[in-house]
Amino acid sequence: MDKWKEIKERLKHLGGRVELLADDHTLTLTKAHDGKKIFVMVYVDGTVNFEWTKTEDGKPVHAEGRFWRPMKRAAYRKKDYAALKRGWGKKEADRMVTPRVIGFVPNFGTEGAAVAHLKKHFPDLEIKVDEVADGF
């Protein structure tokens, strides 16, 4: 089984957990819930520091933010495009309804989304070997 399938398999059930090594950081992915939604939480070196959510020109200010999900939002909704175009012109209206990265958040909606992000940005990550045998 390749490492991406193994990560998905370990995160398949609620409470699933996997530790990874990427760019000299230890990532801990856990499947959790908040009472309403189930999501995959990403801890970098065992912690979540919300200072890492900051962006500058769509890039993370802190290196740890690279491991988190980029959150994209547009200044205005697409349904307001016609009014924006009349008031500001086509070029500015296009810019106003185009989603941009406004921050990085430490959770992913599914294990597949987390794996896709890590696969794209960190193809050489490794699964950390557990001291306890995986058999239960």
How is the topology of this model organized?
Elements: H1 3-10, E1 17-22, E2 25-33, E3 38-44, E4 55-56, E5 59-60, E6 69-73, H2 81-88, H3 90-97, E7 100-105, E8 107-108, H4 111-121, E9 126-127
Antiparallel strand pairs: 1-2, 1-9, 2-3, 3-8, 4-5, 6-7
Helix pairs in contact: 2-3
Structure write-up:
The two termini are 18 Å apart. Strand 1 (17-22) and strand 2 (25-33) form a beta hairpin. The mean pLDDT is 90. The chain has 4 helices and 9 strands; from the N terminus they run H-E-E-E-E-E-E-H-H-E-E-H-E. It folds into 2 domains: 1-48 and 106-128, no CATH class; 50-105, no CATH class. It has helices at residues 3-10, 81-88, 90-97, 111-121, and strands at 17-22, 25-33, 38-44, 55-56, 59-60, 69-73, 100-105, 107-108, 126-127. Strands 8-3-2-1-9 form a 5-stranded antiparallel beta sheet. The chain is elongated and about 60 Å long. The protein has 136 residues and is of the alpha+beta class. The longest helix is centred in the last third of the chain and has 11 residues, at 111-121.
In brief:
Helices cover 26% and strands 30% of the residues. The chain folds into two domains: 1-48 and 106-128, no CATH class; 50-105, no CATH class.
Q: Considering DSSP H and I runs of 4 or more, what fraction of the residues is helical?
A: 25-40%
Q: Main β-sheet, in a few words?
A: 5 strands, antiparallel
Unreliable stretches (pLDDT < 50, length at least 5) are none
Total number of domains:
2
State the shape.
elongated
Q: State which percent range the strand residues make up.
A: 25-35%
Number of strands: 9
State the secondary-structure class: alpha+beta
Strand order of the largest sheet: 8-3-2-1-9
First-residue to last-residue Cα separation: 18 Å
Compute the gyration radius: what is it? 18 Å
* Element string (H = helix, E = strand): HEEEEEEHHEEHE
Summed up, the helix count is: 4
Mean pLDDT level: 90
